[in-house]
Amino acid sequence: MDAELRCNRLTCRKTLIDKAVVVSIVVLSLIDCANELFNASRLCPACETSLTEPDDVVVCSLHPTNDYKTSVLSGLSPSLIMEICSRALSFWQYQIHQENSFQHAVIRNLNDKQAQLQKQLDNVIREANGEIDLLGNKVTELERDLELERRKVHELQDASR
Amino acid sequence: MDAELRCNRLTCRKTLIDKAVVVSIVVLSLIDCANELFNASRLCPACETSLTEPDDVVVCSLHPTNDYKTSVLSGLSPSLIMEICSRALSFWQYQIHQENSFQHAVIRNLNDKQAQLQKQLDNVIREANGEIDLLGNKVTELERDLELERRKVHELQDASR
Amino acid sequence: MDAELRCNRLTCRKTLIDKAVVVSIVVLSLIDCANELFNASRLCPACETSLTEPDDVVVCSLHPTNDYKTSVLSGLSPSLIMEICSRALSFWQYQIHQENSFQHAVIRNLNDKQAQLQKQLDNVIREANGEIDLLGNKVTELERDLELERRKVHELQDASR
Amino acid sequence: MDAELRCNRLTCRKTLIDKAVVVSIVVLSLIDCANELFNASRLCPACETSLTEPDDVVVCSLHPTNDYKTSVLSGLSPSLIMEICSRALSFWQYQIHQENSFQHAVIRNLNDKQAQLQKQLDNVIREANGEIDLLGNKVTELERDLELERRKVHELQDASR
């Protein structure tokens, strides 16, 4: 049931499978994206603050071992454990919130495109109908003219006979 | 940052503001929807199991008082507290997961509609072009016929003179 | 492993088994103690503030059903869940802290009693030794006096013969 | 309110202040005790299993930085966060439980010592009383004998006169 997190780089957005790079509020797919973004700068890709503390950029295993799960917070007091737990849930919620905002942006974008397409369709139909009407009128006019000329030909043939 | 939950009834989907009715894995906006669905049956709207236990249907305040927040789990052991906490987080994740699935269904639906609209546009353009070509050909044909008749008229007039 | 909580009333201190009465920061064994303390007053037994809110005094089941565990916090956001969870852990920690303080008071009390007993033992030994010495001296003195008198008897008997 | 943890080595039992060494279910004060116990063996001081995994022995900071608190579990799913949180609470509860058992052992020990001391006091009083009675009897006997001899002296003096 746990919703999967995606790489926060908009040009990537791959589902994070095994490991991830956590930078302040941003999560990135490992190597592929982190290396490209951090080659020299050590700036947060989201807010551009400089990342100087050792825990600012952390490689996080998404499937920690049982040993790690047992020992990582062992020795801490309940209030510290709950604080860390709350911070990690907030991070996860922020990611879910970002994902949700992204989905809503996609929906807005799709609705815009659809409205545009509908408008284009209406225009095409109106223009086509305009042109077809014009051509229809021309055909009617030409058929009338042709009928007149044919009548003239008949009259002239009758007169010459 | 907390994502808001929505009434799980598809015809409602209002954001839950103050109170909600929790039925097994389903959350419903109060009065508006719960009363309509539960007037006689007491069946879960999601899975149709019969709801017989007193805690099966619970009216939940989304903004509990400080007194309630302090006392609701007081006296329980840490392992029970964590179990209850995990169940409530799972419920919330399930809701987020449902919301996310709903968004994805909306996106799929919008993409289908857009493909349909694009196809309709292509059809309209093709059919209009076909009709315009037909009419264009007819105009060309009629103009040619008209020219021929006019020439005949000239020739007959020249001959009679 | 979960440490058991005890009724906070010092004259009771029974292990809480099934249900408990939670009053602000105090936990009480049901009926036995709560009824006696709350018959008229509705004052907190710990801090004497008046308990007026409905959630100020709560009967808490120490072994809630699965249905209750699932539904009690369902519908709440993760941050509310964590806040409630932290408050319940603080309550539990406060109880453990109280129990620990009680054990330390018992140990201090036992150490005081032992020091007193040791002092009493030392006093008894010193007084007994004093009395024994006194009596010993008296015996020595009496034996010397007796010896003198016996010698006098012998001398007088020898003189009279 | 957070109860402090103590070094689990019975000959140390110092309150853990800043850093601690966590070994499976055991927590140790840094350097002082860990180095002595682990110089060559890498066996758990509690259960003697061999500690081969990298996370089996962990140096844990009891006052982690905010950066660490934010990043240590970031990227993990709520269910993993709750699992880790529950494991850390269990560790803390185990420590509290151990501390509590230790306090109870201390109390049992003090009660035993007190009973022994009381018994010793009773014995001393009984033996002293026995000896005092004996000496008292001896004094009485000697005083009677002395009185008899003195009377003899008087009779002999009267007779010689």
Automatic annotation (TrEMBL), chains A, B, C, D:
The keyword Kinase does not apply. InterPro entries: CCNB1IP1. GO terms for cellular component: synaptonemal complex. Residues 107-159 form a coiled coil. One of its GO terms (biological process) is reciprocal meiotic recombination. One of its GO terms (molecular function) is ubiquitin protein ligase activity. Signal peptide: none annotated. Keywords: Coiled coil. This is RING-type domain-containing protein. It comes from Rhizopogon vinicolor AM-OR11-026.
